[in-house]
């Protein structure tokens, strides 16, 4: 056996004669690697060299005997010159082997080969070629040629008779299957629990049901110690609910703490949409105002939200402030936005805190000086400054920034509130590799650094959707001084290793330390359905033609670009514009395909006395404004966004050669030379000045002396003396000679042919120069004519392309189309970011462009006005976009006149599930009379259908209802779990799947699945698909440098895919939309099929991270009192070690009841029943209960020892491995027998090499979980797990477990039994918790 690549190892010296006594065990110390000799009976010992306490590995415990532990002897470390030996050398050096002794650890059914690195003798199964050494973890390979020679070599006469080969090992397939499921760790799931504050009872209950993830609900927050000053006011007014008051208490309590670097600790409000973050912020401002902190900064995403901010402040009672030392009592709210600054000042003087009215003084931002806010000309002494994130990075022409202005206003000792509302706006501070951090993200960090004592509050429902997005949250104290991570990059790396469940652990940590709350509105009562909007025949034909046109346009652009000069600088920019336009074009087509279904569903809802909210992402405003600028405000019909996009792209970016300038009549020889002669020195013919370096003398004195000398020389020389004729070489005065302005030579008038009689008054050129110049100009004219011909040909092709685009039948802008079909702007409230719209004329002929606002309503107020019309019931249809509806509440509010049930239609889903949930939060909020109905619209293109299923599954986990057969839609893609990351295409598995697919299509590797629509029985179908797939990838620019092969591969397309594209899932999904629907769907199905295979294989190998998994069992009990292993000094939160016993078995009575229940409900099938395995293992058969799953059509299996299996089985696989039992008596006896035996031993039988440490198929298990505070001991656990032998035990696994008697729920890290002692030893101390 050798390390790969195999090399012949040197011979091993003969072993020494002295050795351990019979029964002794030699082991290698886990610390210093010294070989120790352990006497019989010793189980636990310490190394005499490094003093490390350790224990015999499980496989050696059978040698232990109950005898007094003798002293441990230490063997010297193996010399460095010792090398491994292979089997052949071992036989040659031992011609007289010792008599066979029953050696411990030797498995007679396997080969015994030495490790090439640590010399350990390994039991290697026959046929296994590559593996890792379980002791030193080095990758090893078997040298098959040497092994065969050693096995077939004739033995010498002195050799003892050969021992008959051992029988092949019996492989228990059932045990392997159960072991794989146990390595997965349980069922993945994200369940939600009803939420009430666990340690506070102040305030009324929240008006709507609130839920929390079950993992967070397993963690208790610290004891509340802060006493609110506004407590009595809140109890009297009932303005805040109990959970909002809980947030106030913990935020104020956290703000009293300081981090290790001296900055004040911050608080994170991660509540979902509709819980009431705005009112919570207002309550926090009011509480701080009562403490005398009269300044606050409130930063949010949009200026529209300032009205909600004012409303929330009013609701909590912050309309007046008693200030005896001031002439008036007021609360100032300064709003700084991109357009205006609003200064709200009380218009009454009242010292008795009677509610005060406000007057809004409006000043344009460009007139508001960048001077001090508390100066006389601005006059803001205290109050709340409300600004947007864009304003935070604004600056004046003189370089003064709003950030500087705000920091100056706050002052160096500022300890008031710094509120980052919707803080996910700053999430790109630490972007992906290759990107740059955003200015907003950097500004958010800068303002925190400049006011270190500010009370920072982060607010966002999606602010921590990924660990990378938390980089700006520097006040949480998760990294930096006094933590386990020196900086954010170390923190990010640890979480990346921790996998999907690591971020949930961070959230649990933050809650346990009192810095985080995260609740969300339950979707109980909400309904959803997934509505397919398949492409109609006309739309499909349009889509196919568009895909064909874009492919031809790309070829045309490539050809046109090839004729341009090589130094053309904008080639890369051209293709960036091409692909971005390509993506927008086809997303626009997808939206347009859903317009008919959207209008039909909206009209149906209106007839049912409901109101409609339609959600989309883009409005097409840019294309509309371009068309209006080009054609005028009156048009024949609505603008086609795709057509205008194509026209704009071709008009502005079609590669045209530069149009040459023709030679004019002035460019004659005479005029050309006149220009040259009259040109100043250093100035070109075209008037361009050549810049020349100016020489500067060393000193003024030297400069003066040199200039004097030069002037003296100049005065002695004269141009009129000693001039020579170039023909006769005669001397003459300069004024008597002809001077050629071209070659600068001098001639006698009589010497030239023909002679010149009169000296010319203008510039003169000799005849040779004149002849050369005329030839050049003639050639120049021919060259310019050729360039002009090329330019006109390219221009003609461009105009022809534009004409084709105008003739294409492309859809209108979906937004304008929907508004028009649902009654126009008088019936539809538009809450978007666009400034104008097209409205159909009253006579029905043509459309007119008009601004959305009127004289009475400013552009800034138009969305608020439209929202008000909808909430008052004057309009029953609202269309919202992401840009215009951030933070807007459109629910069936009890305070609003329009309390009709909302029907929310998603015309365009964002490719982020979190952003989709944000959109749904517009219509599902607190204090509503009814929950909305959601209709998720999708086409049959690409991944839209599958993504809609994932979003709908998330809604289902949040408590939404499904009715009728709608639930069946959820299983179209058979998601692995309700987690939104279950099919995150742009993941490591997604990137690997894409690479495998690309290599398969390029025929570099074999595809792991059969392509859709193909059959292995018909290989030509696979070949045909691969050809089409390559052509499709060429058409969308993924396969580059494509050529048609010659010779035996004539007609075959070849090319290459660059490395950056091999893993770019986002680019693949975007380019996919530009293909015809048929090949588009087949390619996407191939991609997802490969993804499923890779995920399935990873589950089998134990390398798949399912996130948080539930450990299910019939009986879960705490085995011992939990141990406290760590305590956080700041918050007092602790880390606990829990040990549980699980009984996973299913009794015969329970199994029979399950089967009877299925049959009684009419859900059973003819194949349901009890089965026994066709094979025997160790003289026994295994028994299962199998019944058909109504969701997937596969069969669920239940085992006596481990209960219901995670993996479902097809009917063919079931019948291959098992036979159905007709005798219930036989089934009962077998079931009860296996149930009883599994409580004492594993599925490998009584002679299992791991003995009692093996848990495969064992009914009763012992599970260790570290719960509570995890981050401080993350590194210790990671180090301990890295030493584990089994691959599935090395990765960090987050599990959730709940006791069956008292329903105590624990979420934490699973610690294998073998690693528990290492974890405890590496921690500072271990202490039993008090009862």
UniProtKB/TrEMBL annotation:
Highest rank taxon of the organism: Eukaryota
InterPro entries membership: P-loop_NTPase, SBNO_a/b_dom, SBNO_Helicase_C_dom, SNO, SNO_AAA, Zinc_finger_PHD-type_CS, Znf_FYVE_PHD, Znf_PHD
Segments of this protein annotated with the region Disordered: 1-24, 61-108, 151-194, 657-719
Composition-biased stretches (Low complexity): 82-95
Keyword entries, A-Z: Metal-binding, Zinc, Zinc-finger
Biased composition (Pro residues): 1-18, 67-81
Family according to the record: Belongs to the SBNO family.
Protein name from the UniProt record: PHD-type domain-containing protein
UniProt source species: Brassica napus (Rape)
């Amino acid at each position: 056996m050798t390390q790969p690549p195999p090399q012949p190892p040197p011979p091993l010296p003969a072993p020494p004669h002295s050795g351990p006594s019979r029964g002794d065990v030699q082991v290698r110390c886990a610390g210093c690697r010294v070989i120790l000799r352990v006497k019989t009976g010793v189980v636990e010992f310490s190394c005499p060299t490094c003093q490390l306490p350790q224990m015999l590995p499980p496989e050696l415990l059978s040698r232990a005997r109950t005898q007094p532990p003798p002293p441990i002897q230490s063997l010297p470390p193996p010399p460095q010159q010792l090398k491994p030996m292979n089997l052949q050398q071992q036989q040659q050096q031992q011609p007289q082997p010792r008599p066979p002794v029953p050696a411990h650890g030797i498995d007679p059914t396997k080969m015994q080969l030495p490790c090439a690195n640590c010399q350990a003798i390994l039991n290697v199964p026959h046929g296994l070629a590559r593996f890792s050494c379980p002791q030193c973890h080095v990758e090893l390979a078997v040298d098959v040629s040497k092994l065969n020679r050693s096995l077939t070599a004739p033995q010498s006469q002195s050799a003892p008779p050969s021992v008959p080969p051992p029988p092949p090992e019996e492989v228990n397939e059932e045990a392997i299957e159960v072991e794989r499921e146990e390595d997965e760790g349980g069922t993945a799931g994200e369940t939600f629990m009803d939420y009430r504050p666990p340690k506070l009872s102040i305030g009324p209950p929240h008006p709507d049901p609130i839920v929390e993830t079950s993992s967070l609900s397993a963690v208790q927050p610290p004891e509340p110690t802060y006493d609110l000053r506004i407590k009595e006011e809140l109890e009297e007014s009932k303005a805040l609910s109990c959970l909002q008051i809980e947030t106030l208490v913990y935020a104020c309590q956290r703000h009293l703490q300081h981090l290790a670097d001296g900055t004040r600790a911050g608080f994170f409000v991660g509540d979902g949409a509709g819980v009431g973050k705005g009112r919570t912020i207002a309550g926090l401002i009011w509480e701080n105002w009562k403490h005398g902190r009269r300044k606050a900064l409130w930063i949010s995403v949009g200026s529209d939200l300032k009205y909600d901010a004012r409303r929330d402040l009013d609701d909590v009672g912050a309309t007046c402030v008693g200030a005896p030392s001031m002439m008036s009592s007021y609360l100032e709210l300064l709003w700084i936005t991109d357009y205006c600054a609003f200064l709200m000042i009380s218009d009454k003087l009242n010292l008795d805190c009677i509610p005060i009215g406000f007057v809004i003084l409006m000043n344009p931002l460009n007139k508001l000086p960048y001077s001090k806010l508390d100066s006389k000309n601005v006059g803001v002494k205290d109050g709340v400054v409300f600004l947007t994130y864009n304003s935070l990075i604004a600056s004046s022409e003189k370089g003064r920034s709003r950030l500087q202005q705000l920091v100056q206003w706050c002052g160096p000792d500022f300890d008031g509130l710094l509120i980052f509302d919707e803080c996910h706006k700053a999430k790109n501070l630490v972007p992906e590799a290759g990107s740059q951090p955003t200015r907003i993200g950097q500004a958010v960090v800068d303002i925190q650094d400049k006011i270190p004592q500010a009370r920072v509050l982060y607010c966002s429902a999606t602010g921590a959707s990924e660990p990378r997005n938390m980089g700006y949250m520097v006040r949480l104290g998760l990294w930096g001084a006094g933590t386990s991570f020196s900086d954010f990059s170390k923190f990010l790396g640890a979480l990346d290793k921790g996998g999907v469940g690591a971020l949930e652990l961070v959230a649990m940590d933050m809650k346990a330390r009192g810095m985080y709350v995260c609740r969300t509105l339950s979707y109980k009562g909400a309904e959803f359905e997934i509505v397919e909007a398949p492409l109609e025949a006309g739309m499909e034909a349009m889509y196919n033609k568009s895909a064909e046109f874009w492919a031809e346009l790309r070829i045309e652009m490539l050809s046109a670009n090839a004729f341009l000069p090589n130094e053309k600088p904008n080639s890369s920019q051209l293709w960036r514009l091409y692909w971005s336009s390509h993506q927008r074009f086809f997303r626009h087509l997808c939206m347009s395909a859903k317009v008919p279904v959207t209008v039909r569903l909206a009209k149906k809802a209106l007839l049912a006395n409901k109101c409609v909210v339609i959600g989309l992402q883009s409005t097409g405003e840019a294309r509309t404004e371009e068309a209006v600028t080009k054609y005028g405000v009156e048009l024949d019909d609505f603008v086609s966004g795709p057509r205008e996009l194509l026209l704009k792209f071709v008009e502005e970016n079609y590669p045209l050669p530069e149009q040459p300038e023709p030679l004019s009549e002035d460019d004659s020889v005479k005029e050309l030379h006149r220009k040259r002669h009259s040109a100043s020195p250093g100035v070109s013919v075209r008037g361009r000045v050549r810049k020349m370096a100016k020489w500067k003398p060393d000193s003024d004195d030297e400069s003066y002396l040199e200039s004097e000398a030069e002037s003296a020389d100049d005065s002695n020389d004269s141009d009129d003396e000693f001039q020579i004729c170039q023909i006769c070489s005669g001397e003459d005065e300069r004024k008597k000679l002809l001077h050629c302005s071209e070659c600068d030579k001098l001639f006698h008038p009589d010497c030239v042919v023909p002679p010149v009689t009169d000296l010319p008054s203008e510039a003169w050129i000799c005849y040779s120069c004149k002849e050369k110049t005329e030839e050049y100009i003639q050639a120049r004219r021919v060259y310019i004519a050729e360039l002009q011909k090329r330019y006109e040909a390219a221009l003609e092709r461009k105009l022809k392309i534009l004409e084709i685009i105008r003739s294409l039948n492309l859809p209108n802008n979906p937004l304008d189309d929907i508004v028009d079909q649902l009654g126009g702007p008088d019936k539809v409230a538009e809450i978007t970011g666009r400034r104008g719209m097209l409205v159909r004329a009253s006579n029905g002929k043509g459309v007119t462009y008009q601004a959305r606002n009127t004289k009475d309503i400013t552009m800034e107020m138009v969305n608020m006005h439209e929202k008000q019309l909808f909430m008052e019931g004057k309009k029953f249809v609202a269309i919202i976009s992401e840009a215009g509806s951030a933070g807007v509440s459109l629910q069936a509010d009890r305070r609003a006149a329009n309390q009709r049930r909302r029907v929310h239609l998603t015309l365009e889903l964002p490719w982020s599930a979190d952003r989709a949930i944000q959109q749904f939060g517009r219509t599902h909020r607190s204090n509503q009379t009814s929950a909305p109905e959601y209709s998720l619209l999708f086409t049959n293109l690409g991944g839209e259908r599958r993504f809609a299923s994932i979003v709908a599954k998330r809604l289902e986990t949040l408590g939404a209802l499904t009715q009728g057969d709608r639930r069946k839609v959820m299983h179209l893609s058979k998601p692995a779990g309700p987690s939104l990351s279950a099919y995150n295409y742009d993941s490591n598995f997604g990137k690997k799947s894409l690479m495998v697919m690309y290599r398969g299509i390029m025929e570099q590797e074999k595809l792991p699945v059969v392509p859709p629509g193909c059959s292995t029985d018909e290989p030509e179908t696979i070949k045909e698909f691969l050809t089409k797939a390559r052509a499709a990838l060429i058409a969308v620019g993924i396969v580059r440098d494509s050529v048609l092969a010659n010779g035996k591969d004539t007609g075959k397309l070849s090319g290459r895919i660059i490395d950056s594209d091999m893993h770019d899932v986002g680019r693949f999904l975007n380019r996919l939309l530009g293909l015809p629907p048929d090949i588009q769907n087949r390619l996407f199905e191939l991609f997802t099929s490969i993804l499923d295979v890779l995920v399935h294989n990873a589950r089998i190998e134990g390398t798949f991270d399912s996130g948080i998994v539930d450990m299910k069992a019939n009986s879960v009990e705490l085995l011992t009192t939990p141990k406290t292993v760590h305590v956080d000094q700041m918050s007092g939160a602790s880390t606990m070690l829990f040990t549980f016993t699980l009984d996973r078995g299913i009794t015969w009575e329970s199994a029979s009841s399950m089967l009877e229940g299925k049959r009684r409900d009419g859900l059973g099938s003819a194949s349901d029943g009890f089965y026994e395995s066709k094979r025997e293992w160790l003289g026994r058969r295994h028994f299962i209960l199998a019944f058909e799953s109504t969701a997937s059509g596969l069969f669920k299996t239940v085992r006596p020892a481990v209960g219901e299996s995670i993996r479902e089985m097809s009917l063919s696989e079931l019948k291959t491995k098992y036979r159905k039992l007709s005798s219930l008596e036989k089934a009962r006896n077998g079931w009860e027998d296996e149930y009883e035996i599994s409580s004492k031993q594993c599925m490998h039988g009584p002679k299992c090499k791991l003995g009692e440490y093996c848990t495969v198929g064992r009914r009763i298990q012992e599970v260790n979980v570290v719960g509570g505070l995890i981050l401080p001991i993350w590194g210790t656990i990671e180090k301990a797990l890295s030493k584990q032998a089994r691959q599935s035990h090395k990765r960090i696994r987050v599990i959730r477990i709940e006791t069956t008697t008292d329903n105590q729920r624990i979420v934490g890290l699973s610690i294998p039994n073998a690693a528990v002692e290492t974890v405890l030893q590496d921690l500072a101390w271990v202490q039993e918790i008090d009862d």
